[in-house]
Amino acid sequence: MITPRRLLLVNGPNLNLLGTRQPEIYGRDTLADVERVTTAAAERHGLEVRAIQSNHEGVLIDAIHAARLDCAGIVINAGGLTHTSVALRDALASVDLPVAEVHISNIKEREAFRHFSYIEEVAAVHVIGEGVPGYARAVDLLVEVVSGRADG
Ligand SMILES: O=C(O)[C@]1(O)C=C(c2cccc(Sc3ccccc3)c2)[C@@H](O)[C@H](O)C1
Question: Do you know which NCBIfam families this protein is assigned to (predicted)?
């Protein structure tokens, strides 16, 4: 039994504009579609989702800190902060919650500066390059991790 029965969904800078440009990289789904896909996947496991998107690093960090009080895990697409933010990495490491890292595009096959993720080493689940459906697989894999922790 997973308690609390909630996941935090974090989307980072610029993802509020998802679906408006570069469909060849990010597809045509919008942030609302991301939240819909993630919520539907969570509900299949009896979980709800708290979704946050912000272009401000500190807002994301505050949401991650707050999740330690009432969430069972975190699904995060940090956008560009993936490749730059030690502070975001440290926030994820500071809360005792399992993390699923999601990237819509295959960052390992894009520009070299996108190949490195500060989040990679603090995440238990990695879904990269599977488009927006990847958020649903991240939920499924994260639930396995959370359930394993709950079983002890
Ligand atoms: O592939 C991803 O999901 C990624 O996390 C998402 C990113 C990203 C960056 C800027 C904008 C967007 S969404 C977007 C795309 C085109 C136009 C407007 C917004 C995603 C990149 O910073 C990352 O390197 C990769």
Answer: PRK05395.1-2, PRK05395.1-3, PRK05395.1-4
pLDDT value of position 152: 62
Model pLDDT for residues 105-140, shown as the tens digit of each residue: 999 999 999 999 999 999 999 999 999 999 999 999
Rounded to 10 degrees, the C-alpha dihedral 59/32/22/15 comes to: 0
pLDDT at 149: 74
Q: What is d(CA 69, CA 85) in angstroms, rounded to the nearest whole number?
A: 23
Q: Within 10 Å of residue 31's Cβ, how many Cβ atoms?
A: 17
Amino acid at 150: A
Taking 50 as the pLDDT cut, the residues of the chain under it are none
Give the residue numbers marked as catalytic: 26, 103
Ligand 1 geometric centre to CA of 15 (Å): 6
Residue in this structure with the two tokens 């709800």, named with its chain if needed: 48
pTM of the predicted structure, to 2 decimals: 0.96
Q: Which atom of ligand 1 is nearest to the CA of 106?
A: 1
Q: Could you give the residue ranges of the DSSP H alpha helices within the chain?
A: 23-26, 31-43, 57-70, 86-94, 133-151
- Give the Cα separation of 83 and 21 in Å (integer): 21
Q: Tokens representing 114?
A: 């996108």
